[in-house]
Amino acid sequence: MNQKANEAAVRSDFEQANLQHDVDEKLFKEGIGSDHVRNLSRVKEEQLAIRLKLETERTAVAADSAKARLAAQQAKIDEQKALYQLKRSQVDALHVRAGIHGVLQLVPVDVGQHVTPGTNLARVADPKKLKAEIKIAETQAKDVTPGQIAAIDTRNGVVNGHVSRIDPSVVNGTVTVDVTIDDPLPLGARPDLSVDGTVTLENLKDVLFVGRPVHGQPDSTIGIFKIIDDGSEAVRVNVKLGRSSVNTIEIVQGLKVGDKVILSDMSAWDNFDRIRLK
């Protein structure tokens, strides 16, 4: 502001000197004024013109300098705003929020406890959207594929579902299979509830089958004791097995409908083809 005031004062002096020089020049031409006065007014006008030019340049430099200072201050303000937003986001991040709507089940940490990144701070579950995890023996998991029909017994009703995921790893001899529930959940269904699950691998019609023997493997031939003579004796017969489930196995050859067999471990009588039952 001071520089603009200086420029305005010099401009005013220059304009006055310019007018005075015009008057002196006119009087000199009319023979009234002297040449000396005319020259003095001309020199004063020229000096003030130079001063006005310098003051104008100083005003422009001051304006550019002010803009630069304002830009620097604005940059500092923007930097502080960004820092504030960062700190605020870090504070907001301290408030743990679940990514779903549900019910808080478990908080495994205590207030004030120091935890490492990735630590489970809480467990939230949606009781309306549950899945079943069933454990299947690793020897039978090879036949399970995504999309197969499954039935889940919740102890308060059986609901239908389908296999949605098969864990690639084996833990304690079992494979975890995730089943997505397709039916409405029965009353009492809640997270961590113990359930029984059955996966339908294949639907076979008109198949002869028995309970699964102790040592019976699919697509193999084994010796089984068949009960005869009203249950007083049993003879060994060779039976060809087919496909199997958890509790039953297909009989391809060696037995007929109505035959009774011994499914328990009879390895102690491997050297005998006929035994008497008591």
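(ticket continues) Second input and output from the same batch:
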Amino acid sequence: MLVVRSALVLLAILGGGAGGRSGDDDGDLDHAVKMRAVVLADAGVTPNPVLDRLVDGDVLDVSVTDGVPDARGTVRQCIRTVDGVGSCANVFPVQFGDRGDARFQYRLVDTGRCGPAASCVLVIDDAAGTRRAVAHTVFGGPAPQAPVVMIRPARPVEEGDEVRVIIGALTPRAVVQVGYCSPGCAAFNRVVADPLGLATTSVLIGADCARCGIAVIGGAYDSLTAVPFAPPPQPGYDASRLTVGLLVGAALLVAAWRIVAAVDWSPPSEAATPDLDAAEL
């Protein structure tokens, strides 16, 4: 099937990942998803749409905006990792339009590894890897609720502090990666939720910035929790040293006043300077 709109073209292969569900002559679609491409460095911590209750062969109506204008790219199903994505399959080409948008139909494949406790994604990006759009995919059931992230101690922190991160509302035995992003994410801790859906770990706080925070990656949701930073130190004054400085300053002012008052600042008379009068200039 080939879908053509203003400013978009999809290169799809009939009977493969793009097209209607097998046996559906009317081209009915199972799900519609709108995705927004972002700079690749931000793709890991940007809130993404979640598609759940999927089954093998479901056909998506995919709309992508903010891609690279006129770029060639791909659409694929992958497993979410700390470094990005991996173990991708069901790959097909995509052509972005002159406004960086694309719309196409895409048939999903159930790999057997993308249930409610897994972390699977639909990925669309350009060939140069400049911008990426991501949607989470959950097969065989509803997506679990978004995790609840708590930071202890609950007070402003400074760079280099170690905090305890508590993640609740996880699927029991779910695996998540937790780390500080500033904004790049370097070191992550791998933690497994207990039977009550609770996981805890320690995270070292890095530098402060506008998009910094503690990232929790795993399951159907990626989250970035902002960390309150302590304000920078303000100038302080030692009371005793300030008092001594004021007293010394006052004494100098008194001394200067006495000098001014004791010195005769009037100009000398001619009688008092006979040598100056006799001098030849």
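Agent notes: The domain at 148-225 is CATH 2.60.40.230 (Immunoglobulin-like). DSSP finds two helices and 18 strands in the chain. Closing as not reproducible unless the customer responds.
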